[in-house]
Amino acid sequence: MDRSYKFMIMTSFILNIVLIIGLIILAVALFGYKTGLAPLKPTIAKLTDTIDGLNNATIRASVPLNERLPISLQVPVSQNTNVRVTQAVPLSVPADITLPGVGYLKASVALNLPEGLELPVYLSMTIPLESSVPVSLTVPVNIPLSETELGPQFRSLGELVQPLADLVNGKPTEE
What we know:
Elements: H1 3-31, H2 34-37, H3 41-56, E1 58-84, E2 89-99, E3 103-113, E4 118-144, H4 150-168
Antiparallel strand pairs: 1-4, 2-3
Helix pairs in contact: 1-3, 1-4, 3-4
């Protein structure tokens, strides 16, 4: 089980316990008298403190992230470079040869560029890049519970318990 799943189970368990205690205290308040509630004063104070603690609690964890991030982009290349011939390259080209005192000769020149010859070239192209990059990091998480879906529930629980706490502590309740 991952941490968030365990945290949700524990939060649900704590919330259920707090609600059950709140309902028991509320039932005693409805059917008992003020003097009958005096022994519950420490329990109600602890319940109020627990609710306040839940309202102010935060989830702090480090979430490991080990994924591959896809990359799709076009890389422009514009530069001078040298390329090496990997095998002999036969060339046959027409040539106009000037012979002094004789005239012009139209000929065909055949030659081989030898393997390993370095030729200077200018590259101007766009290279498509489709790949993925491994990403491995730990992301710190700090989430105040009051800013989650549990926040309104904790506030509502506090509002439910507060009149009972006021009754036990002798404070006047607002109708």
